[in-house]
């Protein structure tokens, strides 16, 4: 044998590596995670020199020789495109980042997750260490990321069709299924079982071991030439967060099930692999941040160490509960954000999505907060805590799409998906051991998958449900900043001062309002308030570019000169300094509002000749005889009973609490005394102010509820409440004590002077810049008085109202709102609640609307009313009885207890408001002395906020045989012994006391799995009652197979006595209901 020379030996040592280029074998842990010699030649034939750089890693587009792997089919090519992730060894000083530890942890996680064998999870090809650098090899995403798709398809919505929506649902269902596996639902891996065996054989039963979990390497695989770089992660972690304690296996075997949380779901981490479809296959990537949760628990015992989640998609608990462990439901919030953005992209293209982003940025300003939630401080018994809520922008866009977009106004797949986002995904509440909250909670991954799968399955069976086919050409995306608030402020430049409703007498009397600049025109406290804001000029003021109300107002004073309007074009007339509230000038403004409306508007209709308006049973006569005394007048036993129209003022006010003083009322004991004389000095201050105001307005009679209705035992409250409708609608004017906290606080209180700067103009009258206070929305509509239950009816029925707010006084009538500053506000009629409640001929706006408009308006009314407060919760059915009677007449139907015969099915399907007020419904304990009953099928029987099931128009078959309105003829299906019998009077409403209120229905069994589709009034299904459902309606479908149709049901439970009671509502697939057979007839009380 010939000996090798030194040269030959050295040549062999150098060239032998050509034959040792590694081959990456699948499903081989030892082969998968390898450390190569420095001389190893890697089997990559090409590598892009320009990586996509992240905070902890660089990702190179490379080509792997196809013979050196056995994971993927080469398809006849010599190379396999891959993403070569190279972890950085050195970061900036002061970090505890360790590339070796991060690589080992990520590789272990990826290897185990690859055992899940899910096509929508990214699976690595190899992992190795070479020349002191750590690498992980992934398949190359030739379609880029979901972020690329959302950003580049500017007009994708114009090509929206059934195929695209179907592919989207298919991929979304795949992602949801992958997330379900990732979270550990019924998933066992070989590695997990092996580890469990090892632990059981080598570890004491109660031992635990710390595991260093610090997966800080980031991976994003993007195609060559992409302008977007991997998003750098910039949140620091603490050393104490890096140790996760593995709890010893439990005896029930649950330890074998592995539970993971991704922790950084976002469009950048969803990869697209092109195929024959338009969208391709979507896969979840960047699993380096994934966290494992051992056992079937929602939480770990230590704060997690995934600190680098992207801010825009992180869940609220990352901010509000920073010291709490992270739940797997963290990922569900992120999925909600991704689904919402995808829906916006489908409907409006990338330009619509960028508009959504821009509005979020504009609303946030420079604040470092997330897109999808905002936080505020809430005072608790233990101090203060941060409370999160879904952001206004996200809420506005979701609502706007559901209400206005033609694709989502009907019952479609995208609508149901958007409702899923609103009601189950972007939900702040999650289960917490330390801070128990009432549900509903954010969905789990399993629930998300089931909901999306149900939508996908229904879409496959119904083309109209999948896509309506309507053109997207002229459909506009919602807009938060251009959308009007309930009241839109417009400071008008009036061609004449008389158009302001204030005569020139104020201009002659302007000496009382002569302004002197509080400061020279330099930096003042007034301007410092807006010094850091970006300002733009609006008509009559200066506004912050971030939206909202103006920061400052600009006025010119009223003038007797006819040319004054031309001297400052664009600058409105106004009063920078308000008159003293006790002055004649102040009340002159109020009188002129009334006079202007009397002479120029139709808010107060002229009484018909020969007709006599029903007057309140009692009024307070405030005639100025002696000044000191007033008296109670029984109108039916006086000369004024025959007056065709009597002017009186009605007071709307809060009663307040009785901690210090009891309420001042008329009772059977003192009514005779009140009829004789009432000393004004003994009255509460709010009543004194009302008497003074009534006299100043030149009106003789005043109505105050606590004085004009006999209260307490032997009183006539229940009788008088029937006529509340006419008390406020027949009043000459209503005065609202908006700033009062109770009957003892008063409302004619001195106001704090606002800061004013005078801008002198040579040869012209000066201009005045002052603090903006014309905020009717904030001062009145959102004020504390309007949160009281009785006040909603009072505002809706009043024809004209004067609001005495803290900063100024407002006037409201059918023509709009006027401010004491002389500014005028217009209402966008027929578009929102302002027109509905401000209608002087309520409910003319509703009555003149089409059927769908009527439904939305009464749902709006009842939804808002359900959120209001009562001193006595048993007043809930009564405080809206007057409005209900008006609506019954306007709709030309019968009704009662918040339900109209004309819309009976929809009215029954109210539900607990799980989005904005997640507390459960609490049954009201009505006094035994109450003469009427409130049925369980009415929301008036409960405390708590409600909403209505979002039901499509013209797409529901209402059940007319198995559930009948109390006002309908008896059903031929119901037996004669159980037919409805509600007396001879078929027209009745809430305050009728002689009518039967039970429903006779056919109840059916349903599967327990249907609970996912039910909203229970008290939060959960009762365990000690027999529960059934009543089919109220079912969705129309081309196929006549009931199993595949959505059924809208009333859920009822058997009472301990006789009959059944309502406990919830739901929209349930027919396959989960026992539709065969006759069911059973029951009474629902």
TrEMBL record:
Spans annotated as Disordered: 195-257
PROSITE patterns: PROTEIN_KINASE_DOM (PS50011)
Stretches assigned to the Protein kinase domain: 45-426
Molecular-function GO terms, alphabetical: ATP binding; protein kinase activity
InterPro entries attached to this UniProt entry: HET, Kinase-like_dom_sf, Prot_kinase_dom
Compositional bias of kind Polar residues: 199-210
Protein name: Protein kinase domain-containing protein
Organism: Xylaria multiplex
